[in-house]
Task: structure prediction
Amino acid sequence: MEPRAPEIRYATTDDGVQIAYWSIGDGPPVIIVHNLSWSNATLEWRLTWFWRFFTGLAETHTVIRFDPRMAGVSGRQAPSMTTEAMCLDIDAVADVMGVESFALIGRAIMGPVVIEYAATRPERVDSLVICDAITTVSEARAAETLRGVVALTESTSAEFALGVFLQGVDDPEDRAVLHEMMTATYSQDNSGIYEAQMQWDGTPFLSRITSPTLVIQSEEPDMGDAEQARQIAAAITGTRIVTIPGGTAPYGPDPGVGLTPVLQHLGHDGGFVPRSGLKAVVFTDVVESTAYTNQVGDVTAREEVRVIESLIDQHASPHGGRVVKHLGDGSMLVFATPQAAVDFALAVQAGMSDQHLDLRIGMAVGDPVEEAGDLHGAVVNLASRVAAEAAPGAVVVSDGTKQLLVGKPYQFTLVGSRNVKGFEDPIQVYEVTSRD
Result:
């Protein structure tokens, strides 16, 4: 369940526009600027991949998010939509929060705005992060995507939405929220906003930026591209480019992927540990071990199971996992992220090709109870029962785990819907394989 959205407050810009904002956390301030199409200070808290990033960053920083003029729940009337005017929105929020200087994060089409802001107000920007870099909105790919966003607000077709803009979002509820966000902004004055953004160009300001700069680039960005990221790096001395999986930097089903480089850029070297305690619990099970033992004898069977345990131990640590315990013919492990767990499982199955026995592996994500090194709780029971649904040699995940892997390099095949003891609703189980 998503947390309740923070209290929405308002700041007034020098040209009289009401700007909606919220803040959470305590520490050095970070201001995050979203695309107009994805900016909604209340609806965004219905998207898990948004709020997990926000709350993770709030562990060490004061996170400030606002809706730019004419977007989300901010004022619908504005005398200007130039990048210079958009910079006034950032000023207004920083001033009302009493923030003298801060880290500034801008995403995709807001690239020209945060670039101009950092160049013209260097005393206020301690560090700059640009995600899925765009320097010039009229560049063909960005313009095409933005036209798709505008068209999307006029369509209620899920198929159309997937084809135009939301192809990387599999969850129907997430698609519905994003569609609602876009419609809330662009249905007000589609052509006016679109035409204004076509004039945005941060290129002339790049050489004036002195703030430490990080560019986070998605492998499959919905907007922006590697060429514009390189343009920024060439113009701003010391810029670092980090590429992450998926298409919506810095967000994603695994918030640590985008959050870790942000924290490192802001001076926090440690990895990301979600406040929620969510972890991936994995079970492995040797298939038909009893029959094999009867066939070859206890000693031989145990030797071969020991080889499999060694294989599991060998792959757990490099993927950031921990073997909780070996269970005779199976094992229980825990990982910080579902992607790490899946990568571990696929690596182990690849290493099973020389064994006489087969292994099934399954997992679920939740908040286990840890006691004396062991794990307990509903997610442990779920992971065990999901694993029991795997075919020999397969890796399977619960439906909740699959949703957290959206945008990762995997393919999913529905195994079926299973009634799991202790769970009121049936659980969808999927087999996962590498897209490569």
